[in-house]
Specification:
The complex is a heterodimer of chains A (about 600) and B (about 100). Chain A is an alpha+beta fold and about 600 residues long. Chain A has helices at about 1-10, 25-40, 50-60, 75-85, 105-110, 125-170, 220-225, 225-240, 245-255, 300-305, 340-345, 355-365, 375-385, 405-410, 435-440, 445-455, 455-460, 465-480, 495-510, 560-565, and strands at about 20-25, 45, 65-70, 95-100, 115-120, 185, 195-200, 210-215, 265-270, 275-285, 290, 305, 325-330, 335-340, 395-400, 430-435, 515-525, 525-535, 570-575, 580-585. Chain A has 3 domains: about 1-145, 3-Layer(aba) Sandwich (Rossmann fold); about 175-410, PPM-type phosphatase domain (Phosphatase 2c, domain 1), CATH 3.60.40.10; about 415-585, Histidine kinase-like ATPase, C-terminal domain (Heat Shock Protein 90, 2-Layer Sandwich), CATH 3.30.565.10. In chain A, the strands form 4 sheets. A 5-stranded parallel β-sheet of chain A has the order 2-1-3-4-5, sandwiched between helices. A 5-stranded antiparallel β-sheet of chain A has the order 6-15-14-11-12. In chain A, strands 7-8-9-10-13 form a 5-stranded antiparallel β-sheet. In chain A, strand 9 and strand 10 (about 275-285) form a beta hairpin. In chain A, helix 8 packs antiparallel against helix 9 and helix 16 (about 445-455) packs antiparallel against helix 18 (about 465-480). The longest helix of chain A has about 50 residues, at about 125-170. Chain B is α/β, with parallel strands linked by helices and about 100 residues long. Chain B has one domain (about 1-100): STAS domain (Transcription Regulator spoIIAA). Helix content of chain B is about 30%, strand content about 30%. Chain B is built from 3 helices and 6 strands; from the N terminus they run ββαββαβαβ. Chain B has helices at about 25-35, 55-70, 85-90; strands at about 1-10, 15-20, 45, 50-55, 75-80, 100. In chain B, strands 1, 2, 3, 4, 5 and 6 form a 6-stranded mixed β-sheet that branches. The longest helix of chain B is centred in the middle third of the chain and has 13 residues, at about 55-70. The relative contact order of chain B is 0.19. Classes of the chains: A alpha+beta (about 600), B alpha/beta (about 100). The interface of A and B includes residues 310 and 318 of A.
């Protein structure tokens, strides 16, 4: 190895001492050859037959082998074969020494694995030059081999690094509730390094966020942005932030940390199972499909509603210019949303054609059983590319609209935190918080309020319910109270989109008013009680006979009152209906 | 893939023309095209008349050009796109950042 290293490190044109094995049964020829080679500055091992040549090769590992073709015990051709075997992947130059002159014999030398042949009698000049040439060849071969080995080591190293990185990544950018029974997701096993991500999380109000993202580029640069995106997604979802707030925050983070030219094509979808609507923010992704296959009155072609991206990808625009407007869609039970990155559409076959939109659409038109649509799409792509699922590079997600009740059953009972009289935390306090128009326009108070409630260990076990109560009361106070939007809009089937349009318009106009939260918590003998009081500046509504009229289509509709009644031990309106108190109790576990 | 840059005298705009596939392999050449331009031009024209395809790294390169040209104050026209190219630019909503003709 030392000698090899010297060979490589030296200037390619420099004279290098080589180890040369000479096998010739003719004593005088062997002596002559040895003298010539030694005089040229090389080290010689000389033997008299093929068998000794093989042994000497094994013992001395010469750089060049000179073999007489005709020798007793083992001839040069056989010896060459053994030496080549022994040399393994090292290509040792073998030169045949021969007094034969005819073309066929000379050709045989090369066919038998020789690098060259040398005719007797020897010419001193030619012999020395030939050995120098073979020395250069040997050096080149060693260099290539060393570089190959270095590459292999680097490659192994990189793979190990990626495996570690992937473990870290998987812990941070975990798929959340992607395994919910109403959801199917396909990600390439090495998706981290093709820059794709799929995240899903149950919202505190019982809905679900699903995010699909595709970072530009491949490898670690593409993977790196997914980590902060994922942390923001799960963290903010947990704290009850809205879709718009989450997508704005992810964009802000990515535009800060990603270099110009690297961005993330992304869709974030908010599923409200209780209201049967979804809200979509999509930037830079190919058209997504909303498939209303459950509605038998629609033809297959009409059942596909393509949802285009309205925004630039994440990480491109500064927070000041970023637009978080969403598209709102009504959904029915069984409707499905299909999300994909461009990997599906751009999946190529061996001729370089792409799978494309038309083929994708054909899968939908040919489908007869909606439950297998997902597999049919993947199957069609694999069939088109002729590749196996393992080495694909595409991401596909299907989410089915289900009822709130069904969605809730996927998650079962949340593990309860044990709360005893010794670990109760802050039990006796009151907090009052008033939001005025400027704040109502730009700020969502729910994460802050939820955060404060979660300081009480006894309330932590009920975070979803509390979030729902706060969210319902706040939207009633803001939308029906302060902004005066008619809640009956939400009862009609087309009403939701109109409702959100009016809400957006009203929020952007000049308005006066306030919403005040007063939260009071107190200890009780076997637990605690929280009173949430919400007052708004609006006109209120006629809440008389509220319990008898809940089913009717009057002013209460859309205020989520039946839900709130089921969660609170006391629920009361006061004055003109612009003040409401919800009392929530918890017990030691 | 080949890229030419050409400064036209009259309106002092730098025209960059991309032939063939516009993807990551064009990275250095595309950058050289605008970084090695002599005077600071008044605007940029990216001529896609002979561009057959662009991928997301090409979109990234366009964003780099935009950054080089002054970000929000830049004037960049992307012209003569074929349908495939136009579609990719549209999906990404790049018309919000560039003048696409």
């Amino acid at each position: 190895m030392e000698a090899q290293k010297n060979l490589i490190d030296l200037d390619p044109d420099a004279e290098v001492a080589l180890k040369v094995l000479i096998a010739d049964d003719n004593d005088s020829d062997r002596l002559l050859l040895t003298t010539i080679v030694q005089n040229a500055g090389h080290q010689v091992f000389a033997v008299a037959n093929g068998q000794d040549a093989v042994n000497a090769f094994n013992d001395n590992r010469p750089d060049i082998v000179l073999l007489d073709a005709m020798m007793p015990i083992m001839d040069g051709f056989q010896a060459a074969e053994h030496i080549t075997d022994l040399a393994g992947e090292e290509a040792i130059p073998i030169v045949f020494l021969t007094s034969l002159k005819d073309a066929a014999s000379l050709a045989k030398c090369l066919d038998a694995g020789g690098t060259d042949f040398l005719s007797k009698p020897y010419n001193r000049l030619i012999l020395a030059a030939k050995i120098r040439a073979l020395g250069r060849l040997r050096k080149l071969q060693l260099l290539v081999r060393m570089q190959r080995d270095r590459l292999a080591i680097h490659h192994d190293h990189l793979i190990r690094e990626q495996e570690v990185a992937k473990r870290v990544f998987d812990n941070i950018a975990h798929p959340g509730c992607v395994n919910s029974p109403n959801m199917k997701a396909h990600l390439s096993p090495m998706a981290v390094f093709n820059g794709d991500m799929v995240l899903a999380a149950r919202k505190p109000d019982g809905g679900m966020f699903v995010l699909i993202g595709d970072f530009t580029g491949h490898g670690l640069p593409a993977a790196i942005g997914a980590m902060p995106a994922s942390e923001i997604f799960y963290g903010m979802t947990n704290k009850g932030f809205s879709l718009q707030e989450i997508i704005s925050e992810i964009n802000k983070k990515l535009s800060n940390i990603l270099p110009v030219g690297v961005f993330c094509c992304c869709a974030l979808v908010d599923f409200s199972f209780d209201r049967n609507i979804i809200q979509i923010w999509a930037g830079g992704l190919p058209e997504l499909f909303l498939y209303r296959g459950a509605d038998k009155s629609l033809s297959k072609a009409d059942a596909i509603e393509a949802v285009g991206s309205k925004h630039l990808p994440l990480g491109v625009l500064s927070p000041q210019r970023f637009n978080s407007d969403v598209q709102v869609f009504e959904m029915r039970q069984g409707d499905r949303l299909y999300l994909w990155t461009d990997g599906i559409l751009e999946a190529g076959d061996d001729k370089g054609d792409m799978f494309g939109e038309d083929r994708l659409k054909t899968v939908f038109l040919k489908n007869t059983t909606i439950d297998v649509m997902f597999d049919e799409i993947l199957g069609a792509v694999d069939q088109f590319t002729g590749r196996q699922e393992q080495d694909d590079d595409h991401t596909l997600v299907e989410v089915k609209m289900v009822t709130q009740t069904e969605f809730d059953t996927y998650f079962g009972e949340k593990k309860q935190e044990k709360v005893s009289a010794e670990s109760v935390g802050p039990m006796a306090w009151e907090f009052k918080y008033t939001l005025r128009p400027q704040s109502l326009k730009v700020f969502n108070p729910l994460p802050l309020l939820t955060h404060m409630l979660m300081e009480v260990p006894g309330l932590r076990n009920h975070s979803s319910k509390l979030y729902t109560i706060l969210a319902e009361l706040y939207s009633n106070a803001l939308e029906h109270g302060v902004l005066g939007i008619n809640s009956s809009l939400k009862s009609s089937s087309q009403g939701f989109a109109e409702y959100y349009r009016q809400r957006e318009q009203a929020l952007n106009s000049d308005f006066k008013g306030f919403v005040t939260f007063t939260l009071t918590h107190r200890a009780e003998p076997d637990g605690g009680a929280l009173v949430i009081r919400v007052e708004d500046s609006g006109l209120g509504f006629d809440y008389a006979n509220i319990e008898q009229n809940l089913s009717g289509n009057d002013g209460y509709c859309g205020r989520g009152i039946p839900l709130l009644l089921s969660m609170c031990r006391r629920f009361e309106y006061f004055d003109s209906g612009n003040k409401v108190e919800a009392e929530f109790e918890w017990r030691f576990a | 893939m080949a890229i030419w840059a050409n400064e036209s005298g009259a309106d002092k705009k730098l025209t960059i023309k991309i032939q063939g596939r516009f993807d990551f392999s064009a990275h250095q050449e595309f950058r050289d095209a605008y970084e090695k331009a002599n005077a600071k031009p008044d605007g940029y024209v990216v001529d896609m008349s002979e561009t057959t395809y662009l991928d997301s790294s090409a979109l990234g390169m366009l964003l780099l050009l935009r950054d080089h040209a002054g970000g929000d104050t830049s004037h960049i026209e992307i012209v003569n796109c074929n349908n495939d190219v136009k579609k990719i630019l549209t999906i990404s909503n790049f018309e919000q950042l560039f003048t696409i003709k």
